[in-house]
Amino acid sequence: MQLFGSTTSPFVRRLRLYLNDRQYEFINLDIFSAEGRAILTKNNPALKVPALVDGDQCIYDSRVIYRYLAEKFNDPKLTWSQENLLTLIDAANDSLVSILICMRSDLDVNQDKLFFNLQHERVSNILTVLDKEVADGVFNQWNYPAICLFCLLDWVEFRQLHQWKTYTHLVGFYQRVQNMEGVESTDPR
Ligand SMILES: N[C@@H](CCC(=O)N[C@@H](CS)C(=O)NCC(=O)O)C(=O)O
């Protein structure tokens, strides 16, 4: 099994943390280099990481890859509430990927423009909801949704994309899971 990704992507890191001790090959791409894009084109026409190759089967999108792996390893399906949490985490992640790409395109992402305002508003709304979910104990176990939340927060911190330290329950969660298996070895810094 081969996982195509980058060390910095939060969508890739969640799968690396989930796979942890399992046998697989991690193929680290520079997704903006010509070589990386050629490999991406072959394995995911959407030109995003992650992509998984398992024998003849190629799967793209972390959400679908997780479903594939959970089925393969006989892990329980996510509940609908967990699916909703993932939708929120993914939406915040997607908005922040767009913001990062805008920053790398030398755009001022703090301009009062509809596109930027919508992304900032979405991220703030989602973090407010996730903060409350953490307070309610929804993320007490180190399961896949918790892994995804950690990857989002650590990436926001790493890239300095959003002020999130005012969400005290999220901060508590972030500190609590620092010693979980794989967290240090997958640190992109
Ligand atoms: N929905 C996708 C999102 C993946 C994604 O956005 N990956 C980013 C890296 S963090 C990417 O490859 N971006 C390239 C681009 O947007 O051109 C998933 O869950 O796998």
Question: Which key features would you list for this structure?
Answer:
alpha+beta, Glutaredoxin, Glutathione S-transferase Yfyf (Class Pi), Chain A, domain 2, 2 domains, 7 helices, single chain, 189 residues, binds glutathione
Topology (SSEs and partners):
Elements: E1 2-5, H1 10-19, E2 25-28, H2 34-43, E3 51-54, E4 57-60, H3 62-72, H4 80-104, H5 114-135, H6 144-159, H7 168-176
Parallel strand pairs: 1-2
Antiparallel strand pairs: 1-3, 3-4
The structure holds glutathione.
Walkthrough of the structure:
With 189 residues, the chain is α+β, with helices and mostly antiparallel strands. Helix content is 54%, strand content 8%. Strands 2-1-3-4 form a four-stranded mixed beta sheet, with helices on one face. The mean pLDDT is 97. The protein is globular and about 45 Å long. It has two domains: 2-72, Glutaredoxin (3-Layer(aba) Sandwich); 80-176, Glutathione S-transferase Yfyf (Class Pi), Chain A, domain 2.
